[in-house]
Amino acid sequence: MADLIQNFKATTINDALTNIASSKYLLPAIQRKFVWKSEQIEKLFDSIMQGYPINTFMLWKITDSSIKNNHMFYDFLLHFKEHFHENNEHHATNARSEDFYAVIDGQQRLTSLYVGLQGTYAYKLPRVWYIDCEENFPTRKLYLDLSGEYHDDNDERTMKYNFKFLSKSDYEKAIEKGEQEWFVLHDLYKFSDEDEFLEYVYSREWKNKAFAKKTLSSLYRKIFKESLITYYQEDIQEIDKVLDIFIRTNRGGEPLSYSNLLMSFVTAYWQKDTRTEFQRLCDQVFTIGNPGFMIDSDFILKTCLVLFSRDIKFRLNNFKTEVVSEIEHNWDRISRCIREAFKLIESWGFNYSNMKARNAVIPIVYYIYKHGIESTINDNPLKHKAEKDIMRKWFCISLLRHVFGGQSDYVLKGIRDVLNEHVDEARFPFDEIKDAFKGNQAKSLSFNEEVIDGLLSLHKDDPSCYPVMALIYSHFDFGNQVYHKDHLHPAAYFINFKKDESMTDEEYNFYKDRENWDTMPNLQLLNGTLNESKNDKPLEEWIRERNIDLDNQLIPKDVSFDVKNFKEFIIKRKMLLKERLMAIVSK
Length: 587
Fold this sequence. Notes:
26 helices; 46% helix; 587 residues; 6-stranded mixed sheet; single chain; 5-stranded mixed sheet; 13 strands; alpha+beta; flat
């Protein structure tokens, strides 16, 4: 017990950050990425100011040369940017490296302190794309409001001190309003000692001088003077025992999913730099599609389990050493198959915005891997054409029936069983997959008339709209051209439509109702050239000038294309699409 107590130590926040900056504190590869939101960091600083405990940390002192040589360690993240800069830099160590400490428990809190006091935090603004630019991801620093205690009935965090990440624009707007007095925490490091800092504090004219002086004095002491970082130091030099400690300690606090634990396990036993390999693959997949597809370690690990583990649930005992070894041995093929699968579905017109069920890609990865066609699947549109056509049909129908929406492990395992039964055949066994789930109403790939009517009422911007159109236009050459959704009768006509004296309210309302002009019966797929020629041109004029193949575009022939006859056109087009869709899904 005495030895155990001796292993508990304490230090100041500033000393801990100094150790982080000098790489005396490193992160072992078993640690996951930094995941705290800006609100969590703000609340952590409020807790410190209010004197609440921030729990004990655990540090592993690394002295063994073999651990320094054979295991990966990383520096702490200082400048966080959602999606684009979330990964820690690898820190090379070897037997001659000085002893250092690996943080086993406390990474999220220490990184939060590091980012808040010395770094930056950027996250995406609402309703913008994932484009790496300051306009979409403004850089933010942590500020403290010195105008008074924080009171906001709508904030459930019950904070007393108003810590807030502000961009340069946020700060300038706040100054213009003059309602708050913001102090950026970076400025704590402009002063050599407490006396110099207090001299600065007393020289300022704060709105609420007493609160400001008291708050800043307390902040300085808590960062530089008080030993608020209490940690347990582990000295054993056995990676297996430390991995067990990591799993036990990290099941509290920010919850660890089974995928997090699996990632820790893989990282501990791979010879490669797992984090770098996984992130490289995520970055490569993000370049595919417009907007690009986004995957993460969960997706990669689930794919690996489907490939190599009999049981594909996120459980540690499913990730046996032989499974980990097989993944590492075949990693180049695995990563390429994942990339090629996303390139394939991109060639079908899919992207991140219209393909929401990522797990639907895993059976395609599995098929490519087991058939060894990763180097040829996208090499030529004519290669594997029959396989790709039926695979595309299955993919669209699976998305529309939402079969991966719940119990996806059950679905993935069932599809894998069917694929394995037909692994010697150069075809994607759609009919057999359909039969395997026909008794399960929630996972069935069959359609009834009611479902099809619902699909034909989808709006143009609905994520499920594109898969429906990809089915309806199955006769198109998706491997060679890019297709776009477009209105037959231009949307601008209906948006700007004005009622005339001869029109009844019922007629006017029909033209203005988006359910009539922005849904499937008034939509078509066009290749890039045709789409550019169409623009807002009236349908009748476009068909005549471009000599449009009505059968190819699934446009009814026995109806006027004049927009004045829009109601009859929509009724007949819907009947045509319904017949077409019924014929395709019933095959």
